[in-house]
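User: Quick one: structure for sequence A, then sequence B.

Assistant: Sequence A:
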Amino acid sequence: MEKWNQCRLNDHAIVTMGQSPNSKNYTNNQTDKILVQGNADLYKNKVLKRVFTTEITKTAIKNDILISVRAPVGDIARNQYESVVIGRGIASIKGNDFLYYQLEKMKNSGFWNKYIAGSTFESITGKDLKNAKIYTTNSDEERKIGNIFSSLTNIIQLQEHKIDSLKKLKQFLLQNMFI
């Protein structure tokens, strides 16, 4: 087991703060670029295709970590598309699964609460995000830890899918029981 080090997020990974396109360029056309503006565009740790744009400002590529920097701060997802446009409520981070789950832990433990500014609309600054302290170790150990959490996430998702299917079956049976 290697020694763990603490460093600033920006010293370990490339962090890109989003920049919103002009709203006149927003569309419903699914052939345009997907726009990820904030946590409303993140669902179950993936990007939702909700809004599109013809203007490309800042982008995130496939497998980038996306983090919400506005209410609520800290929600995360992996970008599953080749490229998306990121608005000012999102930052993208080039990082491995180890970093992804560390950011998830930071969100769940309330880490971002000390940085939140704004009384009506909570947010954190790019400086706060980039200066956030994270842990690192050697890449092999990070890969192994990331794989463990990734496997657990997959098992949880499979079980959630099974539960949803059973609920639908129950609903169907109840509806057809007294016909």
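Sequence B:
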Amino acid sequence: MPAQGKHRRTKSVSLSRGIAAVTTGGAVLALPVLGATTASATPAHSVAAEKAVAPVSVTAQVNSVTKAAPAKHSVVAGETLSKIAREYSVSGGWKKLYEGNRKAIGENPNLIHPGIKLTIGAKAAAPSDAKAGKAAKAAAPSAGRAATAERADRSERTAAAPVAQAAPVAAAPATYSNDLDGWIKESLAIMAERGIPGSYEGIHRNIIRESSGNPNAINNWDSNAVKGTPSKGLLQVIDPTFQAYHVPGTSTDSYDPVANITAACNYAADRYGSIDNIFGAY
């Protein structure tokens, strides 16, 4: 009797190899023996990874929301959508800024008034009707004009600044002709400053009677001449009277036409109220 079990094929079950061969109709299938163990381990690893990644993702989302928060801008005089868009580096330029603030601005993007509150980074509002679409199209060629106007306005302010800071130009001094008309007018200007009364007609009338308009006229035959103080000049004033009623700022020469007229009118105002009141010898 053969020895029991000597030539029997030993069953081979190897957990370390992890594979069992199954014969089915001549075909050999390889099945993983430890497949269940491997599958159960995988979810545990994934959950741990997800837990580790989750906080990072949430933080990133929070940061993203914080960075995307829209800013507010209050329009001031002289600003345009183009200028504001450049200041805030708005992606899409003035069009994007207008689309996000259409309700506040209105249908014309070229008309923005001081005090309007603009939201930088706001989402574009859908046009309510065909009119809004037309306004956006019409604004496209106007953007260039707005930018040009802005540059022109800046150039005007730059050019005007030196003018505003320049010292005021002094008024040119009045000039008078060197004749009877000019002498009377210059005398009247001085008399007005000193509060001495008199008119052009009154002065002219007395000059023609006294000297015929000759500033060098002198009277050597009347009683004043006998006393050694002859009457001189346009209004025939003697030296003592000229010196007593001389108007500061005029010449001290009694023959000087303007000095002679103003001194005579000053004397006439003191004695007669005005040169206009004299119609004869005085």
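The CA atoms of residues 229 and 240 lie 8 Å apart. Confidence is low (pLDDT under 50) at residues 1-67.

User: Thanks, that's what I needed.
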